[in-house]
Amino acid sequence: MKISGLLTSAGINIGLCVLFLSLYSVLRKQPQNVRVYFGRRIAEEQDRLRGAFILERFVPSTGWIVKALQYTEEEILAAAGLDAVVFNRILVFSIRIFSLAAILCVFGVLPLNYFGQDIKHVRIPSESLDIFTIGNVGVRSRWLWVHCVALYIISGVACILLYIEYKHIARLRLLHLTSATPNPSHFTILIRGIPKTDKGPCSNVVDDFFTKYHASSYLFHQVVYKVGKVQKIMTGAKKAYNKFKHFKDNTVDQGCRAISYRCCLCGASSNSFKLLSTEFEQNRCKAGNVSSLNFPDEECTAAFVFFKTRYAALVASEILQTSNPMEWVANLAPEPDDVYWSNLWLPYKQLWFRRIATLIGSIVFMFLFLAPVTFIQGLSQLEKLQQKLPFLKGILKPKYMSQLVTGYLPSVVLQIFLYTVAPIMMLFSTLEGPTSHSERKRSACCKVLYFTIWNIFFVNVLSGTVISQLNVLSSPKDIPIELARAVPGQATFFITYVLTSGWASLSSELMQLFGLIWNFIRKYILRMKEDTEFVPSFPYHTEVPKVMLFGLLGFTCSVLAPLILPFLLVYFFLGYVVYRNQLLNVYRTRYDTGGLYWPIAHNTVIFSLVLTQIICLGVFGLKKSPVAAGFTIPLIIGTLLFNQYCRNRLLPLFKTFPAQDLIDMDRDDERSGRIEEIHHQLHSAYCQFADTGDVPLEKIQTVGRDEDQGSSSGDSSGKETCEDPRKDLSHPTLKGLPVSRLQNAVRSLTFLIRLQKRGLSE
Is 185:336 a contact under the CB 8 Å cutoff? Predict the structure, then answer.
């Protein structure tokens, strides 16, 4: 690719960024878009924008940038959680290290690459980008020591910054543990693999085991039930009630009629629905005899076990409970809002098979993705593509067409294919059987990260065809040499990828295109009310891998092709502003991993550094510079030793909690008298079914009658009549809805759940 092609791609993406940023600064001021761009603040603070016509609303501005930069780290921690702070520190680390690398390599290494050989240079726009890479440096050049020194400086400063950030985030994690309000998950462990015996139901087995072996610290337990249908009914009832809350100025007719129609296949008649003649008191009597939730068949081989102190729960989660490691498996419980209930009933012995199956599925999907990547590489290598397909010569003859195809189209096509990766990896992570939402998202983050590094970096670097890739993989000892030959040549594609997937995707993230379009369709086409309950959470499983991939490209190309560094710096600076704005205004934090994304980022940076050093070692070998190659080997060893030191010194703080801090917290609670209150709160902390209470549907005015209710319908109608008809909850499209039936159903389910809770607490 020539400089003109790169400038074409840069011009298109700069234009898109300016357009999107300008549109965002206007659209965010419109009252109808308030829930798209201020979802978190609306949900938590009930802020609203003014609806009057103001000219300022239609003028682009940069005020949002100033506001995003004004927030401190403490405010981000309080508003978005520790994971948001970790993501922000990843961006800060990237800005610092690549600012140094840009200054060092653009002004020190890039001129040496450009004048590396004694050739006649043409005008800059007509120059090939390969002229600016280390591939233009002559064999046995005496200037290769400059590249080696730059590599040493970048690696050393990166390790120092990594250690500083690691210590800072570890301190924040401990501060988050000790300064937070009492967390029920610190007193709770999740037991899986409970053996089935003839002694009775699962609840008795758990109680007998912990009363016998943890008598001094055991408090009580709560068995997890396999009752997905009941949970769906409760969720549906709550959603229906939430819709009723917004109905106004109309009445709901109780004269509900079923619609009869004839089947097209068999000719039998059917009804759209059928009202069952069940009364609340009958349900109450049936529930009073025996609760279906107490049947042993509905119980699951998992339970939450609560302890009197945090330290006792930590000890119980770390030790092996029995001589059979597959039974009585204990782990610290996730936070109540983080529990992934639908996976708790999975048999523990089945999890290893699920993990192997998802691993195989992920690997197969990674190799299936070779086809589009190979096609994209054909677009970036225009000369080879024209030789294979002669009819393209006429189409690509205009200069602007060749610049568009080589400079912009490959990265756009790749980005379109990459949109399918995150949902598939999230599905694989769900099938693994995680017990928490954060664990599922973190597992998906690792899968997406491995996928992007393999397909975006290695496959693009080593690709010509799939067969050539397999040949490279069949001889691992030649991989450093092949990487040394291929990375400088692929730097042009990586630059365009940064422009398209980096700059343009940040603008798209800021605009919230999907949310904006859905908000328009929901309001003006479907005429639906605003969904005040749904606010999206930050997609760490897509954004963390994206940032780490750009970091990998920056490290590997810093010495070999420094021209990518200015484009990367623009991405990280823009991302720093955009992501702060999104975390503080758009996304709501429902659960938090406690900073566990940082070890993923640390390991990726170390991998990037070692890979860069190995590639430079291969380049120095190809350029026949034994001095530079010899000095690179100690650098690789030193980086690995630094990583091992961090694993021993700081990583254990992210795997478990310090006993010293937990014991101090327990003693403070005992001295202050809060321990009894905490124990009381534990009884309602992990509720498998949300307690809706008595859903207040009494404010619905009903007209007509419900034929199936008989004489009791009159009483219900009398109770449901509202004194102020202007405040009636109603909707013109819901005529004929059996409100009293829904009310009785909700009350019956609530009664069953309260019976379950009463039985567990006793």
Answer: yes
Nearest-5° angle of CA 100, CA 103, CA 108? 125
Here the tokens at position 103 are 């200054």
- For residue 29, the number of C-alpha atoms closer than 13 Å in the C-beta half-sphere is 18
Judged by phi (left if over 0) then psi (alpha if -120 to 50, else beta), residue 644 lies in alpha
Largest CA distance in the chain: 103
At which residue do the structure tokens 């065809």 appear? 465
pLDDT for 425 beyond 70: yes
Could you give the angle at which helices 466-474 and 370-380 cross, rounded to 10 degrees? Answer: 110
Rounded Cα distance between 109 and 101, Å, is 10
Assess whether pLDDT exceeds 50 at residue 698.
Answer: no
Average the pLDDT over each of 140-144, 269-273, 313-317 and give the range with the smallest value: 269-273
C-alpha separations of 265 from 262, 269, 357, 586 in Å = 9, 11, 40, 49
**Counting beta carbons within 10 angstroms of the beta carbon of residue 216, is it exposed (0 to 12), middle (13 to 18) or buried (19 or more)?**
exposed
Mean pLDDT of 706-711: 40
pLDDT in tens, 312-371: 999 999 999 999 999 999 999 999 989 998 888 888 888 999 999 999 999 999 888 877
Q: Give the C-alpha separation, 546 to 544, whole Å.
A: 5
**Residue 604 three-state SS:** helix
Mean local confidence (pLDDT), 466-485? 56
CA atoms within 13 A on the CB side of 68: 21
287 CB neighbour count, 10 Å cutoff? 17
**In b/e form, how buried is each residue of 389-407, taking b as 16+ CB within 10 angstroms?**
eeeeeeebeeeeebbbbbb
Average pLDDT in the chain: 77
Which residues make beta-bridge pairs with 303? Answer: 191, 223
The top-scoring range by mean pLDDT among 133-142, 285-294, 607-616, 736-745 is 607-616
For residues 689 and 234, is the Cβ–Cβ distance under 8 A? yes
What pLDDT does residue 500 have?
79
Pairing between β-strand 218-225 and β-strand 188-192 as defined by DSSP bridges: unpaired
Q: Which residues pair with 206 in a beta bridge?
A: none
Residues forming beta bridges with residue 702, ordered by sequence position = 252
- Beta strand 260-262 pairing with 329-332: unpaired
Beta bridge partners of 2: 128
What pTM does this model have? 0.78
Nearest Cα neighbor of 426 from 398, 445, 413 is 445
Q: Which residues pair with 128 in a beta bridge?
A: 2
- 3-class secondary-structure state, position 295: coil
Whether the Cβ atoms of residue 250 and residue 729 lie closer than 8 Å to each other:
no
Give Cα separations from 490 to 130, 226, 518 (angstroms). Answer: 9, 53, 38
**Best CA proximity match to 585, nearest among 86, 172, 38:** 38
The 3-state secondary structure of 444-506 reads: HHHHHHHHHHHHHHHHHHHCCCHHHHHHHHHCHHHHHHHHHHHHHHHHHHHHHHHHHHHHHHH
Angle, CA of 392, 396 and 398, to the nearest 5°? 150
Helix (H, G, I), strand (E, B) or coil at 376: helix
Distance separating alpha carbons of residues 588 and 334, to the nearest angstrom: 19
